[in-house]
Design brief:
6-stranded antiparallel sheet; 253 residues
């Protein structure tokens, strides 16, 4: 594993539980170790299995078992270990477990101390190499996920429950619904009311038809045309006759 801290990369979880991740400390075939910080500002070391190791039930079980055994030795059997001088060194070599998650993407958090092993201590039993008893025969056993360097991300948290509607919103919605019901009732009453109520109203008048009167024909002759002369054959009724000449003053005709 590399011992130099490096910035977080794309795909690294921004936080694990109540811890905020700040940098990468170590990268190995079994998992990744991060430098984090808790809510009080204390530096912590966090170990996360790789995606391939988290999908291997045996590897995941070895990781979780090592964490639980360390927590138990520090808790119930801690006073017995401190009483026996021979076991004190072994107990102090195991880091203190601050928090853990043993689900589908397990992780563990321990206090960060630059000169001591931190959360990477629990990644050691994940890989099984060679034989534990007797001479080695054949090549080392290497799981298929050794080349995977992607961290196992925890499943996304469930969405927050929908916000409870306020009393004002509920009252407003009830008022709108009441208005809609009143309008619907009025429309139904207009559609299904009795016929005697309909006959009370007078029938509408028939529509009137407007026909314009044609304009009168002018009697004045058109300009440039001679006016008609009176007839020479005689006079009609009501027309003046031939004018009589003046009487002879001497009485002659």
């Amino acid at each position: 594993m590399a011992g130099v801290a490096s910035p977080l990369q794309y795909g690294d979880p921004p936080r694990l539980g109540q811890f905020v991740l700040q940098a990468r400390l170590r990268i190995g075939p079994a998992g990744l170790v991060y430098l984090g910080q808790d809510s009080g500002g204390r530096a912590v070391s966090l170990a996360v299995l790789t995606r391939g190791a988290a999908q291997d039930p045996a590897a995941r079980d070895r990781f979780v078992t090592a964490i639980r055994e360390a927590a138990a030795s520090r808790g119930v059997r801690g006073w017995m270990a401190r009483a026996a001088r021979g076991r004190t060194a072994v107990t102090e070599a195991v880091p203190q477990v601050l928090a853990m998650d043993g689900g589908a993407a397990p992780w563990v958090a321990t206090p960060y101390e630059p000169d001591r092993a931190g959360a990477e201590r629990f990644l050691e039993p994940v890989l099984v190499r060679g034989t534990l008893i007797g001479e080695r025969h054949g090549p080392d056993f290497a799981p298929h996920w050794v080349g995977d360097r992607s961290p196992a991300l925890p499943p996304p948290s469930r969405g927050a429950p929908p916000a409870v509607e306020t009393l004002r919103t509920v009252v407003l919605a009830g008022a709108v619904l009441s208005v809609l019901l009143v309008l619907l009732a009025a429309m139904l009453w207009q559609s299904f009311r009795p016929e005697d109520e309909v006959e009370r109203f007078p029938a509408p008048l028939p529509p009137t038809r407007f026909e314009p009167t044609p304009p009168p024909v002018p009697t004045t002759p058109e300009p440039g045309r001679p006016s008609p002369s009176p007839s020479e054959s005689g006079t009609g009724p009501g027309e003046p006759g031939d004018e009589e000449g003046p009487e002879d003053p001497r009485g002659g005709i």
